[in-house]
Design a protein that fits this description.
The chain has helices at 6-19, 34-45, 47-53, 55-58, 60-66, 71-82, 85-125, 129-158, 163-191, 198-208, 210-237, 256-269, 273-287, 291-298, 300-319, 322-342, 348-365, 368-372, 378-406, 409-436, 445-455, 460-467. It is mostly helical and 483 residues long. The protein has one domain: MFS general substrate transporter like domains (Growth Hormone, Chain: A), CATH 1.20.1250.20. It catalyses: L-histidyl-L-alpha-amino acid(out) = L-histidyl-L-alpha-amino acid(in); L-histidyl-glycine(out) = L-histidyl-glycine(in); L-arginyl-glycine(out) = L-arginyl-glycine(in); L-arginyl-L-alpha-amino acid(out) = L-arginyl-L-alpha-amino acid(in). This is Lysosomal dipeptide transporter MFSD1.
């Protein structure tokens, strides 16, 4: 306006900005409640993905008999899920950061898991193993990229505000999906008409499971609506800065600490997911359990995780020291596998230990990524983490089937213990490296806040040079912040 002063312009902008605040109560983006409404739908975003991911594990005995397949063919269902994500999970992360955005990306990836599960079900119905593999391939394209979107959602809404707790809560609800699968999928199969052929019962069971994928899709659409409101407020309060744009060349700034986190992720999870996928027959053969009780035991890891993940996430938020928690969880998992390999202790004992340690690791490992990359690269970083994890799972699921067919469960357990020892060595290296670099991964919350005060005003490049931990600007004040 001609003749107006800078003060007048500022007042006019303030009035205009206030005039856009049309939301009230729970849906007010500037209020304290909307993010907790959003976290409810974040928690159920991957419910269908996790429920259907372990459909084969819950149906292992009848799949092998009805479809007349070997252990290696059975475990290949998990490999076919993982193979596309060796590349596509990283691509999905880049798509989230560069083009799609978290909300649109999550919806697209949910659509993939719906289509993939439908194909998997029809493949089982007609006993077409190649079609089942294709369904798992399509399902995998959506599943891991959806996890990257879910992680990016959590950080974008909760960075600096109970992030470890939210990661634990998300994991808890995701594992509820796996837990419900382990305790219902075989019952669904048993409830179907006994006069139907085995493949028809398998296919029908898998198609019924598609309904859980639609639950995820609905959550994605609701989150998209909520995120539009949140982003509108962010743009009003903090105008777009070209420096905050993601560029693919930024990947070269991934730190050694981040790659070490990737290695830990790979070698830890290959001792969890392939074990759960193949453990039903271990419990039947070694402990003389029925298929129903074997599935119940097999679900204990997920049951413990569903209960403990948010609680342990809250504890990690309050205590910090992520690396201590991480190394303790890996050590406990080694002990659990050793009990299964060398002793005849009832499987409930090692599985409860495994569930506790698995919950601790998830609450301490995954939030570390938010300490090691800027917010604009979170989708890409989590995508790379998912890709590397899936490369390990794809290869190790093949090895799991071959070891089972050739050598049995004892050698398989020894193999899992070796993988965990590699993860523990990587965690020890990360601890030493973080100490040398004076990083924040193993700091207490108060120490992290002290480093925030020290590093306020420094550029990302300076922070990289000092602590090897590029941290994210808080959306509320533009300052460097730590959880």
């Amino acid at each position: 306006m001609e003749g107006s002063s800078p003060v007048d312009d500022e007042q006019t902008q303030l009035v205009n900005r206030q005039g856009t605040r049309t939301y009230h109560g729970l849906l007010d983006p500037r209020g304290p409640y909307l993010r907790w409404v959003a976290v409810f739908f974040m928690c159920f975003l991957s419910f269908g993905s996790y429920y259907c991911y372990d459909n084969p594990a819950g149906l292992e005995d009848v799949m092998k008999s009805d479809l007349k397949i070997s252990s290696s063919t059975f475990t290949a269902f998990y490999s076919w899920y993982s193979w596309p994500n060796v590349v596509l999970a990283a691509v999905g992360g880049i798509l989230i950061d560069k083009w799609l955005g978290v909300a649109r990306g999550a919806t697209v990836f949910c659509a993939f898991i719906v289509v993939g599960q439908i194909i998997f079900g029809f493949g089982g119905y007609f006993r077409l193993i190649w079609l089942m593999n294709a369904g798992r391939f399509v399902f995998g394209i959506g599943g891991e990229s959806l996890s990257s979107a879910q992680n990016a959602y959590a950080v974008s809404w909760f960075f600096g505000k109970q992030l470890n707790f939210v990661f634990g809560l998300q994991l808890s609800f995701a594992r509820v999906g796996s837990l419900v699968n382990m305790n219902t999928i075989h019952r669904i199969y048993d409830s179907l008409d006994k006069d139907s052929t085995g493949p028809h019962r398998i296919g029908t069971t898998l198609l019924i499971a598609v309904s859980t994928c639609f639950v995820s899709l609905v959550c994605a659409l609701i989150l998209w609506t909520l995120d539009i409101r949140r982003r509108k407020v962010i743009q009003e309060d903090h105008p777009h800065d070209p420096a905050d744009e993601f560029h693919i060349r930024d990947i070269r700034h991934f730190s050694a600490s981040l790659y070490c986190v990737f290695i830990i992720c790979v070698f830890y999870y290959v001792a969890i997911f392939p074990f759960i996928a193949a453990a039903q027959l271990l419990f039947i053969s070694k402990y003389n359990l029925s298929p129903t009780w074997s599935n119940a035991c097999n679900s204990l890891v997920y049951f413990m995780s569903a209960i403990l993940s948010p609680l342990l996430g809250y504890v990690v938020d309050k205590t910090g020291r992520n690396l201590y928690w991480l190394m303790g969880s890996i050590t406990t998992t080694i002990f659990a596998h050793a009990l299964l390999a060398f002793l005849f202790v009832h499987p409930v004992v090692p599985l409860v230990l495994m569930g506790i340690s698995y919950s601790i690791l998830a609450a301490s490992l995954w939030p570390m990524v938010a300490f090691l990359v800027p917010k604009k690269m979170l989708g890409t970083a989590y995508g790379f983490m998912q890709s590397i994890q899936n490369l390990g799972l794809a290869v190790m699921n093949i090895f799991t089937g071959l070891i089972l067919d050739s050598y049995g469960y004892f050698i398989l357990e020894v193999f899992f213990i070796i993988c965990l020892e590699i993860a523990l060595l990587a965690a020890a290296f990360l601890y030493v490296y973080n100490s040398i670099k004076k990083g924040i991964l193993n700091d207490s919350p108060s120490a992290r806040r002290a480093k925030q005060d020290l590093l306020d005003g420094k550029t990302d490049a300076t922070i990289n040079a000092v602590v090897d931990s590029p941290v994210s600007p808080d959306e509320n004040n533009g300052k460097v912040s730590y959880t």
